[in-house]
Write a structure and sequence with these properties.
The complex is a heterodimer of chains A (191) and B (77). Chain A is an all-alpha fold and 191 residues long. Helix content of chain A is 80%, strand content 0%. The longest helix of chain A has 32 residues. Chain B has one domain. The chains are: A mainly alpha (191), B mainly alpha (77). Chain B: This is Cytochrome C oxidase subunit IV.
């Protein structure tokens, strides 16, 4: 594997690459605006949002936060091992990262199943419209992240993936953490 | 580096558990505290997991500025 030292303190070379950081910035702005819209709507109908929020189980949110943070931790260590040229450990940690990502999706599936069976679908009220839109868009990002990590894993196995590719993929995966870290308190705890 | 990532991971878990515990308490400042803890986690993930602490000040400022701006806007609404 070709490895060249990168000067991350250069404005054009943030860890993960400038293109990935442009994507991350746009995603954060988009989700940020959706969060602001939800809070604004919540201030118009505080009772509805509070009662609806009480119908959610914050334990799901806390478990999912812990799963995503653990997944992000494994990803960061995986990149660290790749940088110090221990690809074997890096690959194992990449698989563990994906495992925790899949566990996140599993918990989300249980939660969605529970909400649908109770009739709290996207049309139930404005709070649940925001709940479904924000969390489903986030889930789509997690699924895309898992596909990217899977391709990186096979690239590492076949020695076709560079460390820059792994860092860019890791940045995308961490972006899912970043988005969730604001979605979780706003949906499950704020109102 | 591995040590700093591990310490930040433990710190992030603690902040998550604290957020869950205090969300059940009745306090007029609880929204601000929950958002502040989220912003700390946000900065922790970006600086230690994404290695942004090594990046140019511009990128660090964008992340810190985003977290502060979001908190201020949400609290002002």
């Amino acid at each position: 594997m070709k490895q060249e030292p990168i000067n991350y303190s250069n404005i054009y070379y943030p860890p993960g690459g400038i293109l990935m950081w442009i994507i991350i910035s746009l995603e954060l702005i988009t989700f940020g605006m959706a969060i602001i819209a939800m809070v604004y709507s919540g201030k118009q109908e505080p009772d509805l949002f509070h009662q609806s929020r009480m119908l959610l189980n914050p334990i799901y949110g806390i478990i999912n936060t812990i799963l995503l943070l653990t997944s992000g931790f494994c990803m960061a260590i995986s990149v660290h091992y790749l940088r110090i040229n221990i690809p074997q450990k890096s690959k194992i940690l990449l698989l563990v990262t994906m495992l925790f990502g899949m566990l996140f999706l599993l918990v989300k599936t249980f939660e969605y199943n529970e909400k649908i069976s109770l009739g709290f679908d996207i049309n139930h009220n404005l709070f649940f419209t925001f709940y479904w839109l924000l969390t489903l868009f986030h889930v789509i990002h997690v699924i895309v992240g898992l596909v990217i990590l899977g391709s990186v894993y096979f690239g590492l196995r076949n020695k076709k993936t560079t460390i820059e590719d792994v860092e860019a993929s890791a940045s995308f995966w961490h972006m899912c953490d970043l988005i969730w870290l604001f979605i979780f308190p706003i949906i499950y705890l704020f109102f | 580096m591995k040590k700093s990532i591990t310490i930040s991971y433990i710190f992030l878990l603690l902040l998550t558990i604290i957020s869950g515990i205090i969300s059940g308490t009745i306090n007029k400042n609880i929204s601000f505290i929950i958002l502040l803890l989220s912003a700390l986690k946000f900065i922790g993930v970006s600086f230690y997991f994404m290695d942004l602490k090594k990046a140019h000040t511009f990128w660090k400022s964008i992340i810190i500025g985003y977290a502060i701006a979001l908190i201020i806007i949400v609290l002002m609404i």
